[in-house]
Amino acid sequence: MDITKILNTRRVLLNMTATSKAEAIEELTDLLQRDGAISCRDTFISDVWQRESEGSTGFENHIAIPHGKSSAVTTTTLAIGRTRQDIPWETLDGSAVRCIILFAVRLEDQNTTHIRLLSQVAGALADDDIIEQLLKETSPQKIIDLFSQYAESDYC
Predict the structure, then answer these.
(1) Which residues of 77-112 are buried (b: 16+ CB within 10 A; e: fewer)?
(2) I need a surface site. Which of 4, 9, 15, 109 has the fewest CB within 10 A?
(3) Interatomic CA distance for residues 75 and 78, integer angstroms
(4) Which residues sit opposite 64 in a β-bridge?
(5) pTM of the predicted model as reported, rounded to 2 decimal places
(6) Along the 156 residues of the chain, how does pLDDT read in single tens digits?
(7) The CA-based dihedral angle spanning residues 21, 23, 28, 32, taken in that order and rounded to the nearest 10 degrees
């Protein structure tokens, strides 16, 4: 799967104002709604919180990967955001979160596209160099390229 086909620079926000988990999810949901990937903000946010109630989506190295499988998603995609400050979030290594990768998944894609996307993102996040760049890069396109480059090298 080519992440550049489902992610664009309008869905990357590298100077988020959020100071809490709820604000981060809302801010990234707003990006998705403005770009036409979400039809109903409240339904999608409710579905993201439903998933959070099943177990934290905090990863490690200041990364969180919340997701919503929802009837409110019109196009399966991601929104990537980086906060100005640390956000408390339950993570595997106990670190506060600075980068949030919000998955928005159509119900029809929950067992196929979603799994491939999650695998690609998690694989990229296993690379310390990618995480370092993800936490400091200032160009939305270069953030997208980080994941795209990983996918290309992973399948070669």
Answers:
(1) bbbbbbbeeebebebeeebebbbbbbbbbbeebeee
(2) 15
(3) 10
(4) 58, 100
(5) 0.92
(6) 577 788 899 999 999 999 999 999 999 999 999 999 999 999 999 999 999 999 889 999 999 999 999 999 999 999 999 999 999 999 999 999 999 999 999 999 888 777 888 888 888 898 999 999 999 999 999 999 988 876 554 443
(7) 130
CB-count burial class (<10 Å; 0-12, 13-18, 19+) for 35: middle
Beta carbons within 8 Å of 23's beta carbon, 6+ residues apart: 17
DSSP state of 73: B
Query: Exposed, middle or buried: residue 156 (CB in 10 Å: 0-12, 13-18, 19+)?
Result: exposed
